[in-house]
């Protein structure tokens, strides 16, 4: 059960309403002073360079700087900041590592960016309970570093060293295979500051609950539009005794996807299973100094005991060979493995390197795995037709893939073609009972697709639910809805 | 993304408002005729015996019969029934198999019980996608029978042969171990009829989505208080190549729980791990003709390849023996296994048999596993102090256990002691950062504990969310909130 905290009803402002402004613009000095009074002068900035750093993520969405950036040190300050902004009608944009891909941090209506990275304590580690409670500044890598030698780890891995609360806020998942659930299933609990809501306190830390409505689930993936996540309880997993990675090249996309389905049907507990098309494989070869064959390829990883792994490897090898795999190679040594997955994580940069000076936009559709081959083949045809440069990586185990499109952000015409391509791909996914976003979220760019996916009234229902928690609509406005 | 359907705005009633009644009482003939006009005369009953069959579940909560029972044959009829009731202010109580344990089907304000068991089609089976779409009348066993020889199954097993949509509605889980997630994580999608809401349609069937707020998650565990679930898409799992079960007796509760933690920490993918205290073990020996030692006991089950199982068994045996287990025995043959789990599933009846003529009430607290020994020991002391007859079974892998209390329903004083004991146990769980219900839900009896667990304003937030979907408060009134 999520723990909801009231935004502190904090002393009256002599200038109540005076500073109130929904439109983008400068904040009056009094308001900035009030922010400083909450977090201390050194933790507030209105400098252009700082605001611009906080107005963009890693996507092509144009930078929309907030009017001010504040760094709260604790949940009580977050609560007071939220109350202050809410009372004055100032938009609130939560900010973590800024590694999002859908413009989720763009301050489209200006307002105050609340950078939560100074709250970076690991509040509670319960090894026996396989759980940890972390503040929003704690990143995935920082947590796993802290867990080193504990025998447990947090395996969800979106590539970027994102903050764990940010991953919860976007429902991120990544290269973890179907055997490792995405963030959604590993977020046991949340602490959330609601801007205009009294407090509901709940325990943090148990695995399973059927007590009332699943508020935690409502906040996971809400992209900062419902409240500020100030702590999360995560489920930890035992570190596998042994890990082996593998790559294999296939004659076709179909063969790669068929292998995936057969591996899952054989109940081989594959930990990661990633698809790279030949364009992406070529880019990774160049960027990360690999020499895999330039073909549709699977990167796989297996976790388990030495003995269990031997069996998994053998079964997988049989399956992929039945599907015509070639250049099959295992990476058993840690450094080989890490080279492989570093290459996979750098796929984004490898893609960007294909056209220096360009920015990237990543699509994020997800379809039932049985529909993957047709949509992948169709997507590659659309790519050729569009004249765009694009490469494909996919979390093929769950039907989710990304087409990374390269674009010159100063070329409006090309940007237009990229957006048109992405929308067309989203619609293809919807037609196949898929979704326009498997893990990146809706953010700024997919609001029309969300409407098509859940229907106008589905969006209206979401609006009404948001209105319960954020009646003034000041939490990360312009996103999702 | 849940698919939300409008309750049909169905022809005007000449007697609009005439039949309107929020208090419990007889429905006017016109209204009953209108129900018959929707589903056909043979699918509506106002007979006392039928209404009483639908006014109770398997709990001690007293029978509260609805005013009428209807059996819709399809979602369009459900939608028209909901619209009809809503228009007339008549409470709506969804009914599946009636195997709930918290009085969730009691018609505390009268109204119409919508029995969904005639909608029992398997709408779509996608083996390659590991998913199936079922109507609300399909039960767990019926689905697995249908899946026989498909290589896939639905492993979530609460014991009773509950309907799958009912399991979604209560967030049921059961004896599936931590390696198999509860209903919550296996419900990929829902189709829901909202009584007073226009439609949001979404695709049914993909695994993963980050598109907008998680409406599916909001309905899972909502206990029929938000809408009528008319279909669910479930994630299927490969049938294991081999299954082995085991029992072992321990010198203490602590030793049994320690073994569980060590097994999980060793990443042994245990499929089921159930705790029975010596009282329950004794009852099961008598009722199910087992001859296990009368001691704190674990029932375990392992799934995997023959080779993987050998290793799992060996590791587990080492761990439990380090924790002082005795009478360790494997059940590799199917019939031995099924005898064991039949006994576990019959634990409820075994407990009832300890005091013929009594009814049972099952508590359902869940705590972080590290706190299990202290709460189990304390609970047994409280049992002795209370003079009540009670036995304990637990899904020890996730900190959830049930104390099955026997009570003579005609003995108000004893009933009072049972309720007091259950409340005290719930509060102990909350004090240990646990929850008052791991899988049975809030229903009628735990509303006060829910208030204590999530706080008065948490409940208020839930109320406001409910008001968005059920503004008249006619969906299963008096439950959860």
Summary?
2 copies of one chain form a homodimer. With 481 residues, chain A is of the alpha+beta class.
Give a verbal description of the structure.
The structure is a homodimer of 481-residue chains. Chain A is of the alpha+beta class and 481 residues long. Chain A has four domains: 29-115, Uridine Diphospho-n-acetylenolpyruvylglucosamine Reductase, domain 2 (2-Layer Sandwich), CATH 3.30.43; 122-238, Uridine Diphospho-n-acetylenolpyruvylglucosamine Reductase, domain 3 (2-Layer Sandwich), CATH 3.30.465.10; 241-354, Alpha-Beta Plaits, CATH 3.30.70; 356-445, Alpha-Beta Plaits (2-Layer Sandwich), CATH 3.30.70. Chain A contains 16 helices and 18 strands. The first copy, chain A, has helices at 29-39, 48-53, 75-87, 140-147, 164-170, 183-186, 215-219, 253-265, 278-288, 306-322, 334-345, 347-353, 372-386, 412-431, 447-454, 456-469; strands at 3-6, 44-45, 68-70, 92-95, 112-115, 122-126, 131-134, 152-153, 187-194, 228-235, 237-238, 242-249, 270-276, 297-304, 326-331, 359-362, 389-395, 400-407. In chain A, the strands form four sheets. The first copy, chain A, has a seven-stranded antiparallel β-sheet with strand order 15-12-14-13-17-18-16, with helices on both faces. Chain A is globular. Residues 6-24 and 198-206 of chain A have low confidence and may be disordered. Chains A and B meet through helix 7, strand 11, helix 8, helix 10 and helix 15 of A and helix 7, strand 11, helix 8, helix 10 and helix 15 of B.
